Amino acid sequence: MTSADWTAIAHGLGRTFSYLGVGVVLLAVGFHVLDLLTPGKLAEFIMTQRNRNAARVASAAMLSLAIVIATAVLTTNDDFAFGLVSTAIFGAVGVLLQTVVYVVLDRLTPGRLGDVVCATEDHPGSWVLAASLLAAGVIVAACIS
Q: Is 53 helix (H, G, I), strand (E, B) or coil?
C-alpha cells in the first residue's frame, strides 16, 4: 500500500469518528428529551425496573434518530464540514419532531403518555407511541433524501 492509500484510510477514519461523535451526541440529546417528557427517570424505568413500555418507546426513539442520522450522512455531499453540520441540523430536527409527535399524541389521547411509558403492565399505547416516533424519523429521513 502506498502512503496515499494510508492517507485515504486515515481521512476515512477521521470522518467516520466525526460523524459517529455527532450521532452519539444526537442520540444522547434525544434520550434526554424523552426523559424530560417522562415522569421519573427513563433510564431507571428501563434498567432497574425492567419496564417494557419505557424500553419500547426509548428503543423506537433511538431507532428513529438513527434513521435520520444515517440518511443525513449518506446523502451529504463531499464537503466534510457541511456534511457534519447538516447531519447535526437534521438530527436536531428529528429530536424536535419526536417531541412534537409526543406532545400531540399526549393531547389527542385520554390520560397522559408519560403514565403509559411508566406503566408496570404492558400497555398497548406504548406500541402506538413507539410507531409514531419511528414514523417521525422516517418522515424526516424522506425529507432529507
A: helix
